[in-house]
Every structure is written in C-alpha cells, then in structure tokens.
Amino acid sequence: MNQNILVLQQTEMAELGTAQAALLPLGTPIAHFRTAQDQTATDSGTKIGIWESSPGQFRRAVAEREFSHILQGWCVFTPDEGAAITLHAGDAVFFPAHTQGVWDIKADFRKTYCIF
C-alpha cells in the first residue's frame, strides 16, 4: 500500500505566492489571496496547503470537504443555510462537501487547509 504523507512546514511564517483576486468577490475591498506549499496526495487526491487572504467579502468556491486551522486574523463565515460563524486565530473548522456561503475577512487571515 502506498502512503502519501504530506507535511506543511513553518506555516505561520512560510512565504506565500503571488496574490490573486478572490474568485467570487462581493463588493469592495476585493480580497486577494495567496497560497503556499500546495500539495496533493496521488493516492487519494487529498490537497493540503497554506492560504492567506486580505480583508474583503467573497463566496466560498470549494465544493469538497475541508478542514482548516486558523493561524492568523479573524473572519465571519455565513453559510447559505445557517447562522454566521466567527473564526479567530487558534480555531479549527470543518466544512461538509458542497458548503456554500460568504467569507467576510475582517483582518489579514491565514489558515492551513486539507481538502478531501
């Protein structure tokens, strides 16, 4: 059996790639995001990495399940079906598959993610 062990290193200070505008922005300011250490396990398709966003609002664009650990900043995520959830550095969150909603990034925000 092939085991793909994926590791993220020094997540709080890792250098990130070039900033890109949010895919589905809502109003201004338009949030910009950057990623680092993006990896995919060849045996399962699981993806991990570091993601960072500047303040702004945008729709969530991930269809798969996601587990994230918040490293920096804070935000409010409002699912299309449910109450708003406030997330701060130190929190962890799980999104079931097909979770739709709006990210409202309040302060520079960094998280690690596992999409599966």
Automatic annotation (TrEMBL):
InterPro entries registered for this protein in UniProt:
RmlC-like_jellyroll, RmlC_Cupin_sf, UGlyAH_Cupin_dom
User: What is an example of a Pfam family matching this protein?
Assistant: Cupin_3
Q: According to the UniProt entry, where is the signal peptide? A: none
- Record domain (S)-ureidoglycine aminohydrolase cupin: where: 44-113
Q: PANTHER family from the xrefs?
A: CYTOPLASMIC PROTEIN, CYTOPLASMIC PROTEIN-RELATED
Know the name of this protein? Answer: Cupin domain-containing protein
